[in-house]
Amino acid sequence: xxxxxxxxxxxxxxxxxxxxxxxxxxxxxxxxxxxxxxxxxxxxxxxxxxxxxxxxxxxxxxxxxxxxxxxxxxxxxxxxxxxxxxxxxxxxxxxxxxxxxxxxxxxxxxxxxxxxxxxxxxxxxxxxxxxxxxxxxxxxxxxxxxxxxxxxxxxxxxxxxxxxxxxxxxxxxxxxxxxxxxxxxxxxxxxxxxxxxxxxxxxxxxxxxxxxxxxxxxxxxxxxxxxxxxxxxxxxxxxxxxxxxxxxxxxxxxxxxxxxxxxxxxxxxxxx
Length: 272
Ligand code: GLU
Hints:
Blueprint (H helix, E strand, L loop, with lengths): L1 E4 L9 H16 L3 E6 L9 H14 L8 E2 L4 H13 L3 E4 L3 H6 L4 E2 L2 E2 L18 E4 L1 H4 L6 E6 L2 E6 L3 H5 L3 E3 L8 H11 L4 E5 L6 H11 L5 E5 L5 H5 L9 H6 L4 H7 L5
Parallel strand pairs: 1-2, 2-3, 11-12
Antiparallel strand pairs: 4-7, 5-6, 7-10, 8-9
Helix pairs in contact: 7-8
Bound molecules: glutamic acid.
């Protein structure tokens, strides 16, 4: 059993992150498994070194230990570019310079991953791609490479993806971001879960609606699909019970006020 915690260092660690990290960590330790840490610092405009340092310090303070040096995504950008190249070799990606306004002006409805992309740029070839273009996954073309149904485990339930419905329900997921050329989360996450041999993904339920995109990418790239567990967010289940939780307060500020790691564990409803 190999699991991981994968924070984005775009801000300090909050109570919800602490819950996710401790849950994954405790689960790995209880099963004699492996707990890995991955710093998802692929966003060149929002990631900050000071957040990375604070996150590592807070996690160690909370009592998390990780079984390998953290993987820093910003040090592996060529891996993600290579993955896009391999999808490009199968004609499964296309460049796109649409901004949000152009997309919404087509009447696009909001989907789980932003507005459902209407495939405006689908006829463009990769030879025409500018460095500032987004690169999108062509799910319509991908249907030729996918079975009619894909299955994965989420919270002990089997989920079925009807692949033919995906272009209309999620559009064309972004794999490389417009303007910055940064790789996008779906790609870095699935690439690294495969590379790090992650067998169990434990993360917040806010990401659950995006998991079909991950399973499709895994299928197209020949990567295994881990078992997923999406836990409730700290606002609902525990938030009501523990009315004093301040979600917007960083772990660092709880520490500064004298909280102990066990105080944090109790706040998020984990055994101290
Ligand atoms: N960096 C993502 C986040 O913080 C990770 C989500 C995941 O665990 O896949 O939301």
